[in-house]
Structures are given as C-alpha cells and as structure tokens.
Amino acid sequence: MPTATCRCGETIVDDRWEKLDEIIEKHRAKQGALIPILHEAQELFGCLSEDVQLKVAHALGISPAEVYGVATFYSFFTLKPRGKHKIAVCLGTACYVRGASELVRALKEELGVEVNGTTKDGRFTLEVVRCLGACGLAPVMMIGDNVYGRVKPEKIPEILKEYQ
Amino acid sequence: MGVLYRAHVLVCGGAGCVSSGCRAVQEALKSELAKQGLDKEIKVVETGCMGSCDLGPVMVVYPEGVFYRKVRPEDARDIVQEHLLKGRPVERLLYHTSQREIIQQMEDIDFFAKQRKVVLRNCGIIDPEDITEYIARDGYEALARVLTEMTPEEVIDVVKKSGLRGRGGAGFPTGLKWEFCAKATGRPKYVVCNADEGDPGAFMDRSVLEGDPHSVIEAMAIAGRAIGSNQGFVYVRAEYPLAIQRLKHAIAQAYDYGLLGKDIFGTGFDFDLEIRVGAGAFVCGEETALLASIEGKRGMPRPRPPFPANEGLWGKPTLINNVETYANIPPIILNGWEWFAGIGTEKSKGTKVFALAGKIANTGLVEVPMGTTLREIVYDIGGGILGGKKFKAAQTGGPSGGCIPAEHLDTPMEYDTLVKLGAMMGSGGLIVMDEGTCMVDIAKFFLQFTQDESCGKCIPCREGTRAMLDILTRITEGRGREGDIELLEHLGTTIKDTALCGLGQTAPNPVLSTIRYFRHEYEAHIREKRCPAGVCAALVHYEILQDKCKRCGLCRRSCPVDAIEETTEAELVAAGVGAAGADMQAAGASQGAISQPASSPKRKPLFINQERCIKCGVCMRECRFQAINRC
Ligand SMILES: Cc1cc2nc3c(=O)[nH]c(=O)nc-3n(C[C@H](O)[C@H](O)[C@H](O)COP(=O)(O)O)c2cc1C
Ligand code: FES
Prior knowledge:
- The structure holds 2 protein chains of 2 kinds.
- Chain A is built from 7 helices and 6 strands; from the N terminus they run ββααααβααβββα.
- Chain A has helices at 16-28, 34-45, 50-60, 64-73, 93-97, 100-111, 156-161, and strands at 3-5, 11-13, 85-90, 124-129, 141-143, 146-148.
- In chain A, strands 4-3-5-6 form a 4-stranded mixed β-sheet, covered by helices on one side.
- The two termini of chain A are 35 Å apart.
- The model of chain B is unreliable at 578-596 (pLDDT under 50).
- In chain B, 52% of the residues are buried.
- In chain B, the strands form 6 sheets. Chain B has a 5-stranded mixed β-sheet. Chain B has a 5-stranded mixed β-sheet with strand order 13-12-16-14-15.
C-alpha cells in the first residue's frame, strides 16, 4: 500500500489509492468510462498526476498516452495541484461586456499571480471560465462553489478576506 | 401528499437568485414560519428560474400570486407577520415600474405579461425535486399516451407536422431527424440530449434542467420509443453542478415511479437514462465531438456525413437533440401539432427562449413566440438599455453568430430572417450592447474564444482563426493597416468554406457581421487610431479636467504606476492642457489661463504622464468629482 511520510516523521497510510480502485471498479463496466473516472479521481486527488493517469490507464487496459490525451484536452482537468480555493472569473460574453476583464486585472494585482497561477501560499488559484450561466448578474465570479454576481473590482479585497 | 397547505411561497432557486443569496432568504422564511407556528399551513418551495434574474432573489406568494423582488433575509419577518398572517402584502418589496407605479401580481409586470411559456411552462412554478408536482401538471401523460395509444410512426408524424426545429442552433427539422433515426438499420440505437450549452451568455438549457428536469426525461423516453432506442444519455457541462444534481435526482425518482427502466407503464418498453458530465470544452457542443466525448475520447469533431442518425455513438444510430428541443415535445404530444404549429411564423414554429444579458435593464430568461421582434424583446420585455443609453446592437448565436444593429430592431426573431441578416438564432443567448461597447473589441473577444476552443484538428480553424485574431489585435492596438478589413473578409470567407466542423465554419461570423454593420468603427481604429466607444485601451487616453479637479490627490495615491504627477500652473498653460485652458485659448485669452478652479490654491495641479499611464482607469473610478476624462 502506498504510504507517505508526514513531516513529524510518522508514516501515514494514503488510502486514496484504494478509493481510486473503487472508483475504477464502479465505472469499469460502462462504455466510455474514462472521463467519469477522471472526474472522480481529480476530485479525490485534486489533480491528475502522472501516477494517477498511469494507474487509470493500467486498470482500464488502455495506453497512458490515451489517458494523457484526454486529461490534457479538457480544460476541467488539471495535471498540477491547484490552490485551496479556486477563483473562476467568468469571461463569457455577458460578463465581458459588463467589464469582467477589469475583474481579472484587479484579481491579478491583488493576488500577484497570472491567470492559471497559484498564489505562493497555495491559497488561491486564479482561472477564467466561459460562462457560469448566471449571465443576468454579470460580471460573475466563483470562489469554490460560491457564486458572486455584479462584482465590482474594488470589492475584491473584501471578498477574498472571507477565504483567509 | 395528503397535507394541504393554505399558502405556498415559491422562492426562485435559479442560478442567478442563488448567487444573490436566495438560500439565506429561504432559511429565514422557514425559521420565521416555524416561530409563528405556521410551518404546517404554509409551504416554502424552491423552484427553478423564474426568469427575472436581475430582480433576485425573487419569490411569489400563492394563492394571491404576489411577486416580491430583491428580498433579504431580514425581510422574512415582515413577509410572514404582515402578509402571511395579516394578509397585507409588504409594499416595499413589490415591483416598481420605471414610472414608480407599484405592481403586485406577477402577471401584470410587463416582463412576464408579454411572454408565452411553452418550454418554461413549469419553471418557477413547480418544485423540480418533486416528481409529483410535475405529474400534477400533466407530467408523463404524453409518455403514457405515446406508449399506449400511438405507434412510433404516429409520434414522428406529429413531431414532423408540428414544424418543430432544433433549438441547439442550426434549426434542423426535428421530426425529420427522428425519422432518419427510426429508419436507420444499426442496433442498438441511442438517444442523446445535448446539454453542453457552450454559448457564453446563454443559460436557457441550464434553467430548464434546473427548473423542470422531468420534461427532458419524459421527452427522451418518447424519442426512444419513436426511433426504437432503449438507452439515453444526457451530456451536461461540468460548469452546471446544480443542474447535474437536480437531473440526477429526477432520474432516480423517475426510476422509482417506474417511468424509466424496464417495462414502462406495463407496455414492455424499456428505457434507461444516464448522465455524462462534460469537462470544459466548447467544441463538445458540436454533435460529433459530443459523441466522441461520451465515448471517453478527446472531444474532436469529425466530418459529416455519416450523420449521427446513421453512425453516432459507438458507430450506432444516434438521435441527438438539444434540451429546449426536447422540452417542447410533451406539450406537442398533449396539445397536438395543430396547436404548436399555430404559434410562431410560417417557417419557425413555436416559441423561443432567450437569455437576455449585457447592457439591458431586465436581464433574465424570456420565452416569446417565434417572430417577436427584437424591439419588443429589448424594450417591452427587457425594459430597454441600462442607464438610458442608446441601443447599438444585439448579438445572437454567440461565437458562431453575429450582431443585429439598431436599424434592424424591427426584425422578427426567426431562423431564416436572422440568417439573412448575417446573424443566427443560435441557442438563444441575446447579448445587448450599447454605445459603450466597441464592436471591433467584441469581434476580437469572440475570435479569442474560438481560437482558444479550436480543437486543432483542421488547419483553417487552427491557423486561420489565429491569423484573424492577430489582425484584430493589431487593429485594436492602433497598429491596423490599410487593407486589413479586406484581408479579414477574405480570410473569413475562406475559413467558412473550408473548416471541418461547425466551430470553424462559423467562427468568422462575428467578425464578418461586425464589419458588415460597423465598418466605420474598424476604419476609425485603422485610419484615425481612434476607438469611438472608448474601449480599446491602446487607443484611449485619460486626462484630468482642470476645471473640475479639486486637487485632492486621491487619484494620485490610487494610481498603481505613479503616472499622476504634480505640475505647475505655468507648465499647464504652456501645454494648453485641460478643459479650461483649451477653452480660453480658443477665446484668445492667454493671461490667467488657469483661473483658480474650485480647488485648494495651495496644492499644485495634477496631470497624467501619458507615457507612464497603463490605462487601467483606476483614477477615473476613484475620482469623486468626475474630473477625469477618457477619450
Ligand atoms: C461549435 C458548436 C457548438 C455547439 N454547441 C451546442 C450546444 O452547446 N448545445 C446544443 O444544443 N447544440 C450545440 N451545437 C449544435 C449541435 O451540433 C447539434 O446541431 C444540436 O445539438 C442538435 O440538436 P437540435 O437539432 O435539437 O438543435 C453546437 C454546434 C457547433 C458547431
Ligand atoms: S457570461 Fe458570465 S455568467 Fe454567462
């Protein structure tokens, strides 16, 4: 069983790999099981690391290249760990015409990262998305599962404080 | 069931209202009701989207039908104590027209009164998590009729005669598609629902799935019967977690009630339904790419024919329709094709749901008969332009569509007229733009989008859109050249003719359409290095209006690059800067050019160092005296 060493020196058991086995088993019989498996694997591990991809490929009996191909095609999948909170600013049409690019700029400034970057403290990852379906309240952004509508750039520091 | 309530409070739980905080309002209401001991008499229901997103959180109290908007948790007490206990509607939460008239009933508000709901018949009215509410509104009756009284041929015939056309964009006749699938020889066959809703700015499909998921489930089972399929898939984009959750719940309930699964209504007909979640690729809205994605592959489109009707999922005949297309099916079966064909125009039957967004006063979801004019939608229902500004254009069809300028406001919204105007119906996103929107910038925005989302398989789309984007970027940055417009047109038409799938074939549309109607804006950018709307950062500059400036220094402190500097009166005069200076020069006055403005004489005047300015606009936002001008 894969283990990891904690900073305090104690060996801890990483049971996520067992859970991954369960996920694979659950979907294996389905046609087109790869994407549902990757969705759940990413939820479990936070990202699709090489190890995870290899494991899925072996379990499904497909080539790692195929898994990699799928994992990199879809923007929802990420190969690198993301920050604790994911900030997704909508750059859909409705949000764009109502000034969403100002939001992106303000966030970049506030967090000191570029789009797709993660802050040094690992707290936030800044991403842009295309339409969250709340266009009526443009400009819209999401932090984790919380949606913020009609966001003004000057409100950003205040909003980020909720996630300290 | 069994329990009868004397009143129902329907709280909108659409995406818009959720982000405006409707969940907290619901909680507050429930706890206030419990406190007053009314929780057995009055039921709070979370519904799907009611449509009026910008008024959110909204709610309706039945039986009276009183509509409240912008409700805060603090208002729960008054709603319960005043309205529900004493029968006095809470006036401050009622809707006010722009003439300050107060309206109590939902159906008297223009935004709702001018709509005709077929697809959204249950959205905002029923609890989407309770199948009995759907059944109470004739839900699954159409399926029962199809299974017990009609032959598959009859079903297809009704759909054909109704004149229903696909709502996913292209407007292909739905009945015809069903017939092709029914006639296809491969086995098994599949029924797929396209809920990828990729057009940014469109949220109709989301609202249907969140507000009335059973209508889609029922329709897919009907389609299964009609074409001879026992397995369906709904492909939903990952960005819609609430829609996925509600649909999952609804599918489970339908299985519990025997409305999905084996031997439905004891007729021997089996139908299974599964959800597949997308993973953030716009191109997966295109049908062949979507099918590849369900198969677990990279979502790359392939040339058609063969069409999915003959060779779709795993090479088998597959019927693929959009969410809204399906949602039309049960009412067509129940009310007959004649009824449906009686709505709309000659070639576009029924209604269309539009997602109103952008610079419009009433954003939200509206459903109107096909053929309603853009003017009626924007002004009568949408309440006109935000802040009383001037309408410039409406964009339909998203990254595949085009714009409709002010001179065509009276165009009826139907498939063929829109295509003639160089726009398209698309899925129903309708983004309104005003004088403050730069059309070149919008064209660039869409091309950036398609360029990002191009799957890279074919060269015209992968390289061609990049070339177009480069040209647009250079125009918006003031480096446009004579001949660029013609080059864009040439590239655009070539890409349209040669790209592999719909994404590439339609990608040039936003550019071609803005050139068609707003060529002068392109020319202003190229020849005069000027952005008429004041949007393109490289072409605008900020200046301080000396006659309004109080020299408070707020802008100077907020400027991120220290571009705002102090100067002397003499220098200002020499430079002829500022409104006051310019006026007086024009009048031939030279001495005392800067007659002391209403500012502190002790402080030095400020000006913006144009070389340093990054045009972020912070100074303009911060200034309390509107003393900074952007031009
Ligand atoms: C680039 C591209 C994106 C598309 N996106 C969607 C979409 O998000 N939703 C949708 O229903 N149809 C979309 N379509 C249209 C589908 O390919 C297909 O025509 C539609 O699902 C058929 O359903 P209908 O006949 O009910 O309209 C898209 C097409 C293209 C070319
Ligand atoms: S465009 Fe931003 S939520 Fe739709």
